């Protein structure tokens, strides 16, 4: 008989309940804030800037994530309006959260006088660590899991720890711990971003694009395992195309169930594919057209204070800068870095 091993409610004080889901999401946000503050110090950006960005960005992300999810599940929620705001039970979409966070972030960053791409690059690892930790909220809630599997497949073939295997026993049936797959994928991506952001070849905007490429590749393949995907009805050729791209996974995994009444295309899977194509194209086109001259390591300028701070110095500079946040040409950049302080 099925028994919930983990109580989704962490604390109950009278009518007030604090859910593990919210605590875990909060820990993910704080971990992301820490990473952004530490990297921001290299460019002389005050910690308060990122704290305010978090305070504005998190509510925006949650609201947008919920709206995104409810929009695709309106057939259910129109008859259960009392559940519209029950985000502690899950039902928020990561892509919706990204949309909300990026809209809020763009407005906030530009109002503070910084280049959006420069700050977004700094925050890219924060997004990954937030998602890496946040997925464990799904683990506690027993949600966002994949299709049915045998216990032996999880324990003996994948060698997943028993406490995870036991929690994936949902009403007597074991399921793919897709939360774990995505969390581990994000961890590997985090290491990759840490490595490439110290390389000279990286241009402004490309760390953000790399984040989207890495996360979306993993999401494309993991999403097909899930049984709770947001769906829409699309052309059969598109479904066949997505299935063909996913087909290498069939050697080990089977796709999760899709309710034909809701659709035949997984929204997140299609969006992940489009993001990979867009970001790869953006990197290539920006370099070929000369829009990616500024490097990640270059100084960052605040257009409202006209002060520039490099990644290795906290001394303001009066060197003229262009709108990308770097000096107007490579010679001036080299002159700036070589000049004794």
Give me the secondary-structure category.
mainly alpha
User: What helical percentage do the residues reach?
Assistant: 55-70%
H-E order: EEHHHHHHHEEHHEHEHEEH
Largest sheet: 2 strands, antiparallel
Number of strands: 8
Please, what is the average pLDDT? 87
In short, what is this structure?
Helix content is 55%, strand content 7%.
What are the key terms here?
341 residues; mainly alpha; 2 domains; two-stranded antiparallel sheet; two-stranded antiparallel ribbon; 12 helices; 8 strands; 55% helix; globular; disordered C terminus; phosphatidylglycerol-prolipoprotein diacylglyceryl transferase activity
SSE arrangement:
Blueprint (H helix, E strand, L loop, with lengths): L8 E5 L2 E4 H23 L4 H26 L1 H4 L16 H18 L4 H26 L9 H7 L4 H6 L1 E2 L2 E2 L3 H19 L9 H18 L7 E2 L3 H11 L18 E2 H22 L11 E3 L4 E3 L20 H9 L3
Antiparallel strand pairs: 1-2, 3-4, 5-6, 7-8
């Amino acid at each position: 008989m099925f028994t919930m091993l983990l109580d989704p409610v962490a604390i109950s004080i009278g009518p007030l309940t604090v859910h593990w889901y919210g605590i875990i999401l909060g820990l993910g946000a704080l971990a992301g804030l820490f990473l952004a503050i530490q990297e921001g110090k290299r460019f002389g950006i005050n910690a308060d800037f990122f704290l305010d960005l978090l305070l504005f960005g998190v509510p925006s992300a949650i609201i947008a994530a919920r709206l995104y999810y409810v929009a695709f599940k309106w057939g259910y929620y129109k008859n259960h309006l009392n559940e519209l705001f029950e985000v502690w039970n899950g039902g928020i979409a990561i892509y919706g959260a990204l949309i909300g966070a990026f809209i809020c972030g763009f407005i906030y960053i530009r109002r503070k006088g910084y280049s959006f791409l420069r700050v977004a690059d700094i925050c890219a690892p924060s997004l990954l660590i937030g998602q890496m930790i946040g997925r464990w909220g799904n683990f506690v809630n027993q949600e966002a899991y994949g299709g049915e599997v045998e216990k032996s497949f999880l324990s003996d073939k994948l060698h997943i720890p028993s406490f995870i295997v036991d929690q994936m026993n949902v009403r007597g049936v074991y399921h793919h711990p897709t939360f774990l797959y995505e969390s581990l994928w994000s961890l590997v991506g985090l290491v990759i971003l840490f490595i490439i952001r110290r390389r000279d070849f990286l241009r402004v905007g490309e760390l953000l694009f790399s984040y989207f490429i890495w996360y979306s590749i993993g999401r494309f393949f993991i999403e097909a395992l899930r049984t709770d995907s947001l769906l829409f009805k699309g052309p059969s050729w598109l479904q066949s195309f997505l299935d063909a791209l996913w087909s290498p996974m069939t050697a080990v995994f089977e796709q999760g169930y899709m309710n034909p009444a809701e659709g035949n295309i997984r929204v997140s899977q299609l969006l992940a594919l489009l993001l990979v194509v867009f970001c790869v194209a953006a990197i290539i086109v920006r370099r070929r057209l000369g829009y990616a001259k500024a490097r990640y390591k270059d100084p960052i300028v605040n257009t409202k204070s006209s002060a520039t701070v490099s990644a290795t110095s906290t001394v303001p500079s009066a060197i003229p800068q262009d709108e990308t946040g770097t000096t107007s040409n490579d010679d001036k950049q080299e002159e700036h870095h070589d000049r004794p302080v």
